[in-house]
Amino acid sequence: MPALVFWIDVDNTLLNNDHVKAELESELRAVLGAALAERFWSLYEAVRHERGVVDIPQALARLRAQTPRQELPEATFQHACALFEQYPFATALYPEARETLEHLSRLGLTVIVSDGDHLFQAEKIVNSHLAEAVGGRVLIYDHKERHLEETMERYPGEHYVAIDDRLDLLAACKSQLGERLTTVFVHQGRHAEEGLQRPGHYQADRSVEAIGELRCYEAADFLRAGPNH
């Protein structure tokens, strides 16, 4: 059993998802036009609100179901779908993301634990070569904080480290596992900034400004008591 098991998030932790979304918004507007692109993102937000996670395939399915073919020809719709399926996700990795995974793999077992729909999120993780970087150890849940026991059963360890850009998620994990878990907050992306703006926000055990900073950490840095902000 490894002494350390790292649970590593993807969006805005290893991969600049804010940048990806901005590029997709621009490309989708070019393909669909402003009105249909706006309709898609409205459906995207509706699905996210209903499910609590992003579900691109469901948003696209609703766009198809709710839009007549005279307004949205099938060829145009398939072109829009291809924008998501063929996006070069490897180009959106944060600097030193792959090198950080390699470093952490020398300290313990690295596992990608991500939220999102199982199709699009899996494509993103595979196409960015992140799955390869962690030896195929990838778990995708609708709400990963609800599956901690399952995650630990799948990849047991003596101590766990959760690395994420979302303070609320880190807090939820810490409340369940206590001292068995070290939380690492990565200050990247809009969710990280929003979390810091909330009064009385959770203080993670460790905080870094960029994922690449973890290359300077050794195993003991994740195990010793006390915060490192």
From TrEMBL:
InterPro entries linked to this entry: HAD-like_sf, HAD_sf
SUPFAM superfamilies: HAD-like (SSF56784)
A Pfam family reported for this protein in Swiss-Prot or TrEMBL: Hydrolase
Superkingdom: Bacteria
Protein name: Haloacid dehalogenase
Organism expressing this protein natively: Thermogemmatispora aurantia
Organism lineage: Bacteria, Bacillati, Chloroflexota, Ktedonobacteria, Thermogemmatisporales
